[in-house]
């Protein structure tokens, strides 16, 4: 029996040990899914805090219960655990792939991971890259890693690519429910990929090459980035024409074909949409090919925090105030509702812009108790903590900027006690329209609301 057939047989019998490298928002749910389906699972991470939590049966990721970790029985290891690496039949790499200062791909985490694996690889193992990256990465990095360990792809070792499609905070956006693209360096590698992911995925979708799977993942996120850029530009146009952009979108969405509604916001955040399009644009530049839509959408989306600050400035100007010295409260530091993740969050960029203009800043986010250290801000606000939304505190603010409406956020208190609210997502649009179609919310019969609402 060849190595491929032997590995597939072990997977089919649930005897194959699965190693997941990177126990974050993508890797940990994947590890739990394999454990749930009866596989022995080892989890690896360079963060000792995550490894310690896993060993103690505690969850290091928001939204995953401690009980799920305790029940899964995942073995936790750091990346120096060579014997644990060798014991795995499949090694699934779920590490970050950010962009550098000049928006070039930063694959250092993938390279470091592969370098740590090579000394401990053995015949019969599969390496599956799940991190989002440009077409050609698996061939350029994973296959040479196998070769460095003396393994031949498709014969004694197996190179796979299967991009993660987790959507944190969305119970429908999990590996158990979402179709999973799979690709392999050879036909035998693809057969291993199908066998490896069929027990855990909602559906397995084989494609013809590693590059097709890598490109498909990028296209998924480029599609969203371009359409978000378009609707963000539409929002600015609608504001200039005194139109309600959300009413425009709702009207267009009544068309049952050829249209998909996207919603505007204060900019892009998270680990995918603000980052992944630049992987494709970088690859295109290397080939001398245009990527005009991608780069234009990136510029539009990156400009949105500045646009929000300009709208806030204008609203304060109308009240005889300036940004300098203004007491401002940002609601929501995370990049989207329901998660504590502040990576690339537009709230953080808005904070930076306002801080540079001399504003006196505070924030409230039920899921982010302390201001995070970030790549862009560093330690600019290391002692800042989430403020409670007391009547006195809200009344003392010159403006409240609603960026990310988190579950549990008392927006009713904000409406009752704040004097000016700048709403970047249209969350309070219905309240404003109910009381004053101009968008200014004054005291209405039976209501104690005092805020003026400005859409941004």
Describe the protein in words.
This protein is an alpha/beta fold and 456 residues long. It folds into 2 domains: 3-208, Rossmann fold (3-Layer(aba) Sandwich), CATH 3.40.50; 304-455, 3-Layer(aba) Sandwich (Rossmann fold), CATH 3.40.50. Helix content is 40%, strand content 12%. β9, α13 (346-356) and β10 form a beta-alpha-beta unit. Mean pLDDT is 93; it is low at 433-446. Belongs to the UDP-glucose/GDP-mannose dehydrogenase family. It comes from Humitalea rosea.
What's this entry about, in short?
With 456 residues, this protein is an alpha/beta fold.
Topology:
Blueprint: H1 3-12, E1 18-21, H2 27-36, E2 41-44, H3 48-55, H4 66-72, E3 75-77, H5 82-87, E4 90-93, H6 108-117, E5 125-129, H7 137-148, E6 157-161, E7 179-184, H8 187-197, E8 203-206, H9 210-240, H10 245-252, H11 276-287, H12 292-317, E9 327-331, H13 346-356, E10 360-364, H14 391-395, E11 399-402, H15 411-417, E12 420-423, H16 429-435, E13 452-455
Parallel strand pairs: 1-2, 1-4, 2-3, 4-5, 5-6, 7-8, 9-10, 9-11, 11-12, 12-13
Antiparallel strand pairs: 6-7
Helix pairs in contact: 1-8, 9-11, 9-12, 12-13
């Amino acid at each position: 029996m060849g190595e491929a057939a032997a590995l597939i047989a072990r997977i089919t019998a649930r005897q194959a040990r699965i190693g997941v490298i990177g126990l974050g928002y993508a890797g940990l749910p994947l590890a739990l899914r394999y454990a749930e389906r009866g596989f022995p699972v080892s989890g690896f991470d360079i963060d000792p805090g995550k490894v310690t939590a896993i060993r103690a049966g505690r969850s290091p990721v928001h939204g995953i219960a401690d009980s799920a970790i305790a029940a899964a029985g995942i073995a936790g290891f750091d990346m120096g655990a060579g014997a644990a690496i060798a014991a795995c039949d499949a090694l699934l790499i779920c590490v970050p792939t950010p962009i550098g200062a000049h928006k070039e791909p930063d694959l250092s985490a993938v390279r470091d991971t592969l370098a740590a694996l090579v000394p401990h690889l053995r015949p019969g193992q599969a390496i599956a890259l799940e991190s989002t990256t440009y077409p050609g990465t698996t061939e350029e990095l994973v296959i040479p890693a196998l070769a460095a360990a003396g393994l031949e792809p498709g014969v004694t070792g197996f190179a796979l690519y299967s991009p993660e499609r987790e959507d944190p905070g969305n119970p429908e956006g999990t590996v158990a429910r979402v179709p999973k693209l799979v690709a392999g360096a050879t036909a035998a590698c693809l057969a291993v990929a199908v066998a490896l992911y069929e027990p855990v995925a909602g559906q397995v979708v084989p494609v013809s090459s590693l590059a097709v799977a890598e490109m498909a993942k990028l296209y998924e996120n480029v599609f969203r980035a371009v359409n978000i850029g378009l609707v963000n530009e539409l929002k600015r146009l609608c504001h200039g024409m005194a139109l309600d952009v959300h009413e425009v979108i709702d009207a267009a969405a009544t068309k049952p074909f050829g249209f998909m509604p996207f919603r505007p916001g204060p900019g892009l955040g998270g680990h995918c949409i603000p980052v992944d399009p630049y992987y494709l644009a970088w690859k295109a530049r290397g080939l001398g090919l245009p990527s005009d839509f991608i780069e234009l959408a990136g510029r539009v989306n990156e400009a949105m925090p500045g646009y929000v600050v300009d709208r806030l400035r204008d609203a304060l100007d109308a009240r005889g105030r300036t940004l300098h010295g203004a007491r401002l409260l940002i609601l929501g530091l995370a990049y989207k509702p329901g998660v504590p993740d502040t990576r690339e969050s537009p709230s953080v960029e808005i904070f930076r812009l306002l801080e540079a203009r001399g504003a006196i800043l505070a924030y409230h986010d039920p899921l982010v108790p302390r201001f995070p250290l970030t790549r862009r801000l560093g330690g600019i606000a290391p002692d800042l903590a989430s403020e409670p939304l007391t009547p006195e505190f809200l009344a003392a603010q010159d403006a409240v900027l609603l960026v990310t409406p988190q579950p549990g956020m008392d927006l009713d208190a904000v409406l009752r006690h704040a004097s000016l609210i700048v709403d970047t997502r249209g969350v309070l649009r219905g309240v404003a329209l109910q009381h004053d179609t101009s968008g200014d919310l004054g005291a209405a019969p039976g209501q104690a609301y005092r805020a003026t609402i400005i859409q941004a």
